[in-house]
Amino acid sequence: MGPRCDPVSPECRGMTDEAVGDRAAGGYERGVLEPFEVFRQEKDGGPMVHGGSVLAPDPVLALHYAREMFSRRGESIRLWVIRRADVHELDDPDLLAPPLDRSYRKPGGYVMRDKLAAARERAGTTKPKARDRSR
Amino acid sequence: MTTTSASILVGLDAAVRAGLDALLLSMADDEFVLGFSDSEWTGIAPLLEEDVAMTSLALDELGHARALYELLADLRADGRDADAIAYDREPAEYRHCRLVDGGRGDWADTIARRYLYDTADAARLAALDGGAWAPLAQLVAKIRREERYHLMHVGAWLERLAGGGDEARGRLIAAWERLAPNAATVFTPLPGEAALVAAGILAVPLAEAEVRWRSAIAPALARLELPMPPVTASPDCGRLERSDAFRWLWGEFTAVRRLDPTATW
Amino acid sequence: MTDPLALDPVLPRAERQRLPFNAEATHSERFDAFEAHVVAGGKIEATDWMPDEYRMAVLRFVEMHANSELMGVLPEREWIMRAPTLRRKLALTAKVQDEVGHAQLLYRVAEDLGKPREAMFDDLLAGRTKFHNVFHYPTKTWADIGVIAWLVDAAAIVAQQALRDSSYAPYARTMQKICWEESVHIMHGRDVVVTLAAGTPAQREMLQEALDRWWGPLMQMHGPRSDRSKDRDLHWRIKAKTSEELRQEFLSIYVPRVWELGLTLPDPEPRLDEAAGEWRYSEPDWAELRTVVTNHGPRSEERLEFRRLARAETAWVRDAILSAPSAAA
Predict the structure, then answer these.
(1) Are B107 and B175 in contact (CB under 8 A)?
(2) Residues A77 and A113 placed together within one structural domain of the fold
(3) Per residue in B96-136, pLDDT tens?
(4) What pLDDT is recorded for position B261?
(5) C210: exposed, middle or buried (C-beta count within 10 Å: 0-12, 13-18, 19+)?
(6) What angle do the packed helices B14-39 and B107-128 form, to 10 degrees?
């Protein structure tokens, strides 16, 4: 879980107001309840995956609530919270999957069985034996 | 339970065992009663997400209580299990501190009580960390890791109530006035405590842990303009006087079990 | 190292063409395209265009589900205090916590469809929206806790599993998470029940008496039989099974398990009609169901009032952390 902090003065990044440093000198600043998107990592080396969202008045409580909603059973090893208002979305299919042929970007766009056969014939060679994949 | 009853008692003389009995019972009862109070917020906390969070804190305390009662059962090795210790006593026999003895109260009471208890408990646990009796030292190490979150969460709420406008601050101050006079009862001297210090199970007497607690919370209280908890009035009774609120709670939590204490539930 | 020549095309062709209903078009063209998409098994996200009928149908469905999780906390909550062992107390508290968590997940789905959380609480507490029948009844003994955690949760899970493929994707995803968490609840419930069934005569009697009281509401829980062709929630694929299909599934799994414990059911009729492959049972009291879900059940008003008071008593806390009274984005 990271370096052990002195339990009486916890300073874990993002989980306390001091660590976040966004507290005004005069005290807590009231906010608005807004959605924070929660991303979670399920196992070591895995990707951050969207899990859902929490309503919270600020990022500190949002992180506490993400822990409650998405890791009560220890199912996450890392959590991110991001204000929904800070998420920038693209979902336009014309931009994400444009319609004209782009097979030059994909392995399936290269079919060379016949050309290979012709090249072998010209060179008088045979197809190499399949490699032993168990090694 | 990580070892057999017989092996964990090796090296403990009668005085140390008596001290451990009193220590474990006081800690387990503290966690049990606090866990009960806080679980009263389940379903009706101020925010839905906060409901889940406060219930987790309550569940953690109940889990700590269970582990401590189990260790105590192993220590006593008299046939009574953790449930028997937790449930089968009269109200006057419970040894939780006066800080957690009152009813749940409102949200300000809960946050004030939790802040005072969790910070005091942290000092108590620090005094037990790495102690000479392995089963307790191992349990304390795990509990301390869980308690970090409690301090973060309750600390965040103390900030928000202290700075949350006149009404919130007013309620917090009122709760503080009710509860702070009993805050130091977490450190009530225990019978047999000296033996625990001599055996290296407690690093320092509880009175010294109290001093360390006060210096640890002083900066935050100064910043939030909350008064330092006073010295406890009648310190020796800190774990003896039981309130009507606790007697009511006892009636509730023993209700089903008392239908038939020999039955399996 | 893999031989690149041996690779099949591994990147799937993009199947999601520009969804016609998200494009600019007449309302009727968008509606038809939307309907075709959903009926063919397509999914809808919160930011997609939706016809009002669909949006309102999903919102109503999800809101009632959220309300039910929230109100469902109250019958069991009374017994958190009285759980007779440490293990039962931990399990029951965690179960009720899960239900609050499920309420949160479901209210979030409904909020993202456009209705603020406070407005949903207002409507619930004023009796304008509903919650499921079973949560309007009293819990009288510890055995009720076992019966609820086992059979009421089982009946709910049968419905919830069928919702994991809902056309409204945020709801479907939420149901997948909920179903994963609910599987523990049934284990807890069944353990409480089996412990009582194997216990003292007084415990067995307590259990039978609780079952006698809960069976009627359980049989009403999935609702009256509906005409598949007229069910709009089925048409929009918000849900996938009819009330009767859910009830049959519940009966086929759980009646044998109840009988296995030597318990009897107050319904003298339940039996499996082998030829038809269906369970026969006494007709549930639909009048009782209607009375109860319109908030005239034995505990309806008391529980709503309890919630109103709790909400009023904690209003100052929300005001302390929000810049405007109960402000929400």
Answers:
(1) no
(2) no
(3) 999 999 889 999 999 999 999 999 999 999 999 999 999 99
(4) 86
(5) buried
(6) 160
Burial degree of C55 (CB within 10 A; 0-12, 13-18, 19+): middle
Select from B42, B65, B87 the Cβ nearest to the Cβ of C100.
B42
Strand A34-41 and strand A78-83: the pairing is antiparallel
Report yes or no on C1 lying in a domain: no
pTM for the predicted model, two decimal places: 0.89
Contact C228, C242 (CB under 8 A): yes
- Minimal-distance CA residue of chain A relative to B144: A7
**Residue A100 to residues B18, C10, C17, Cα–Cα distance (Å):** 83, 19, 12
Q: Cα separation of C131 and C308, whole Å? A: 15
- pLDDT tens string C94-137: 999 999 999 999 999 999 999 999 999 999 999 999 999 999 99
- Show residues of chain A in contact with B163, CB under 8 Å: 26-29
Query: Are the beta carbons of A93 and C47 separated by less than 8 Å?
Result: no
**CATH number of the domain to which C143 belongs:** 1.20.1260.10
Contact assignment for A60 to B156 by CB distance below 8 Å: yes
Residue A6 lies in a domain: no
Task: Calculate Rg over the CA atoms of chain A.
Answer: 26
**For residues C231 and C175, what is the distance between their CA atoms, to the nearest angstrom?**
21
Q: Which of B116, B145, B160, B213 to mutate to test the interface with A (most CBs of A within 10 A)?
A: B160
- Which of C187, C96, C207 is CA-nearest to residue C141? C207
The two three-digit tokens of residue B119, written as one number: 């910070």
pLDDT reported for residue C20: 74
Chain C CB contacts of A131 under 8 Å are 3
Which amino acid appears at position C292 of this protein?
Answer: V
Q: Residues B245, B103: contact at Cβ < 8 Å?
A: yes
Nearest residue, CB atoms, B52 vs list C81, C88, C104: C104
Distance CA B179, CA B184 (A): 10
Domain limits for position A97: 93-123
Query: Is there a contact between A51 and A40 (Cβ–Cβ < 8 Å)?
Result: yes
What's the domain count of chain C? Answer: 1
Type and span of the H or E element at B121: helix B107-128
Which class is B12-259 in CATH? mainly alpha
pLDDT at A27: 56
Residue A72 maps to which CATH number? 3.10.20.520
Residue among A7, A27, A61 whose CB faces B162 most closely: A27
For B142, the token pair is: 């795990």
Q: Which two tokens stand for residue B77?
A: 């090795």
Residues C20, C29: contact at Cβ < 8 Å?
yes
Rounded Cα gap, residues B148 and C324, in angstroms: 32
Predicted confidence (pLDDT) at residue A11 exceeds the cutoff of 70: no
ipTM of the shown complex: 0.93
Answer whether C316 sits within 8 Å of B167, measured CB to CB: yes
Is the same domain home to A66 and A110? no
Parent domain of C54:
30-223+230-307
Number of structural domains in chain A: 2
* Residues of C with Cβ-Cβ distance to A68 under 8 angstroms: 101
Is residue C72 a contact partner of residue C149, using CB atoms and an 8 Å limit?
A: no
